[in-house]
Design brief:
8-stranded parallel beta barrel; TIM Barrel; 24% strand; alpha/beta; Lyase, Ornithine Decarboxylase, Chain A, domain 1; single chain; 2 domains
């Protein structure tokens, strides 16, 4: 590690979240965790390893490519591809023993004879208008076509709740009613699959009646409620914290400006800290003159435009020095990371020292946290997007 910018992935927090979410499940309901987009930017290999340790046996991804990446290091977990797949991708899914959602992109008559039995789910469109069949007769006909082939097996049927986190639950309740009609039609035809699923993170937190046979959680596993104003979940802990090192500390006087476009005018004598991390690393440019970082134990504003690789912070009154570490989001850096800490370490020892000092200071109940909920609102986006956009050039330091 050379550049002072890294994300800490706290697997203990992931374990905590999974145990909490399991405690909220209706008895008999299985938990599926979405690990698409490199586990929401956290690193799929480390996340899957910890999920399996926590007894999670069902994973969801967006594509066959993502499923095959997991299969390369883990054979014993069930993987469902939620996105549409092509007939040739069905062949690869069957070979890798990966489950798929059977969509319009793969008409059954176009799927070649498969080398192994392919386990499929029926995607049912109850109000999302994204993927899946919209009528009960279509669902029954598709289930019959699946049953007619020896190389296909119907193992599930699911829908996606578009507004389970809305203040008014009416939309989600309407979707659940329509899903019930689909299930009854399949049951009447003797074709009900063993797993019916609709619930997401919001559904798990909101209503046990929406849990059904399996719940597919995403953002809650990584420490965030889909909408904390409607579904507060203070027991959840952020799994990722993003840290950037102070690159320079300089004084500025009234009349000077900060950053591209001179969008911040200095009104008083102030100290400016330049911090590693910019929009190319996944820190939103929309937080120019609006963001905050945790530096020196305090929340301080981002001033000027966020650059591609750096951002500037008002550090007036702080004992900030080059080599200190600031939190761009997540938990307050350990006190040990001050006083030019990064500069005193050899590159080959930095990852190990991050792990050691982070865990020694990880009494998270008493440490300040800069929540992505706060930053995402200011950036007019959601925590999901910021997590997924943390670039692969940012090292992930996994803390166990």
């Amino acid at each position: 590690m050379y550049r002072p910018l890294f994300a800490v992935i706290d697997l203990a927090h992931l374990s905590h979240n999974i145990r909490y979410l399991k405690s909220r499940l209706r008895p008999g309901t299985s938990l599926m965790v979405a690990v698409k987009a490199d586990a929401y930017g956290h690193g799929v290999r480390a996340v899957v390893g910890r999920l399996v340790r926590e007894g999670v046996h069902h994973l969801a991804v967006a594509s066959v490519e993502e499923a095959l990446e997991i299969r390369a290091f883990h054979r014993g977990v069930n993987i469902l591809v939620l996105g549409a797949v092509t007939p040739d991708a069905c062949v690869k899914a069957a070979e890798a023993e990966v489950e798929i959602a059977l969509t319009d992109l793969s008409p059954i008559e176009h799927i070649p004879r498969l080398p192994k039995r392919l386990r499929v789910h029926l995607p049912l469109d109850t109000g999302m208008n994204r993927l899946g069949v919209k009528r009960t007769d279509e669902a029954v006909a598709l289930a019959r076509s699946i049953a007619a082939r020896e190389d296909l097996e119907l193992v599930g049927a699911g829908t996606h709740l578009a507004a389970a986190d809305a203040e008014d639950p009416a939309h989600a309740e309407g979707q659940m009613d329509r899903l019930g009609a689909f299930v009854r039609a399949l049951e009447d035809a003797g074709l009900r699959p063993p797993r019916v699923h609709a619930g997401n993170s919001a559904a798990l937190l909101r209503n046990p009646a929406w849990h059904l046979d399996m719940v597919r959680v995403g953002i809650a596993a990584y420490g965030y409620s889909p909408d904390p104003s409607v579904l507060p979940a203070p027991s959840l802990r952020p799994v990722m914290s993003l840290y950037g090192g102070v690159l320079r500390v300089a004084e500025a006087q009234p009349g000077e400006t900060v950053g591209y476009g001179a969008t911040f005018a200095v009104q008083r004598p102030m100290t400016i800290a330049t911090v590693a991390g910019g929009y190319a690393d996944g820190y939103p440019r929309q937080l120019s003159n609006r963001g905050e970082v945790l530096i020196g134990g305090e929340l301080r504003p981002v001033i000027g435009r966020v650059c591609m690789d750096q951002l500037m912070v008002d550090a007036t009154g702080l004992e900030a020095a080059a080599g200190d570490i600031a939190a761009l989001f997540g938990y307050d850096p350990p006190v040990a990371w001050r006083g030019g800490w990064w500069s005193r370490l050899r590159p080959e020892e930095r990852a190990a020292r991050v792990q050691e000092t982070y865990r020694m200071a990880s009494n998270v109940e008493k440490r300040r946290v800069l929540s992505l909920d706060r930053l995402a609102e200011r950036a007019q986006t959601i925590p999901y997007e910021i997590l997924c956009r943390v670039h692969r050039r940012v090292p992930r330091v996994v803390c166990d």
